[in-house]
Amino acid sequence: KLILLDSLLQENIMGQNKNAMSLRQTAKDCMKDGRQTEAFLHFSHALMLDKENVEILSERSKCCSENLQYHFALEDAKKILELSPDSWLGHVRLAEIYLATANYQEALGCYQTGFQCMDSDKVHCKTQMDRCRKELAIDSRTHMQLPWVGSALGIIVSSMFLVLDFLAHGSLSYLAHPILKVGVCGASATAGYWVARLYRAYTLRLRGQILEPPLDLLADFSLLDKPHKD
To answer: Which of 191, 94, 197 has its CA nearest to residue 145?
Structure first.
């Protein structure tokens, strides 16, 4: 009886693995056709049959990333690291998500960790590391230059305004005095500088927020099921 039970369990496991591989292939076909949402459902069904399959997790993470669902892609990548911490797969998948969301410093760190794994593709990791360094250098230069670009734009706009004001009103303009003109240009330059600084801060904050979990729109509806106190 024990031998029969063991054989039945093995057949059940083999059947589940076969079904999981079939669903995986169906999901990959959907991704080729651009049907990421349908592919996500097939990958999720396959993971219900084979929960610790890191390859399916990796492909679902890639599917979520292509569908701009970066939080779910990040969760799958972290799950891969939990199941297979010595493999490069989880580190590289995590790096791809960070790179897609312009978090270049984090992406570089993940690629460096993946490069050190025994099963890693050294050429791919080295190529992506160089790409991250290049993007990081461009991003750092943008961070330093953008406020001054905003200041220059403020000066250009204010200068155009002063020229048009002179052409329209001449010496009768309220801004005819040179000190007032200098003040307008200075104020515009300062405003452009800080607007650019705020825009840059907003961009950096957005890069982190895009990885956060989405709002649960059904959470408020669950309050309707709770009994009200009289």
So the answer is: 197
Q: What are the tens digits of pLDDT across the range 112-164? A: 999 998 888 899 999 999 999 999 999 999 999 999 999 999 999 999 988 88
The shares of helix, strand and coil residues in the chain, as percent rounded to the nearest 5, are 80, 0, 20
> Residue 60's closest CA among 49, 106, 45?
45
The first and second tokens of residue 75, run together, are 């969760």
CB 121 within 8 A of CB 127: no
Name the DSSP letter for residue 227: P
Structure tokens at 207: 């890069």
The pLDDT of residue 147 = 94
The helix/strand/coil state of 218 is: coil
CB 14 within 8 A of CB 30: no
29-49 tens-digit pLDDT: 888 888 888 888 888 888 888
- Report helix, strand or coil for 69: coil
The Cα angle at residue 209 between residues 138 and 88, in degrees rounded to 5: 70
Q: Indicate the pTM of the whole model.
A: 0.79
Which of these, 86, 111, 81, lies nearest to 96 by C-alpha position?
111
Q: CB within 8 A of 152, min separation 6: which ones?
A: 189, 192
H/E/C letters for each residue in 94-120? HHHHHHHCCCHHHHHHHHHHHHCCCCC
Other CB atoms within 10 Å distance of the CB of residue 136:
15
The pLDDT score that the predictor gives to residue 7 is 42
Residue 220 has pLDDT above 80, yes or no: no
Spatial distance between the Cα atoms of 41 and 45, rounded to a whole number of angstroms: 6
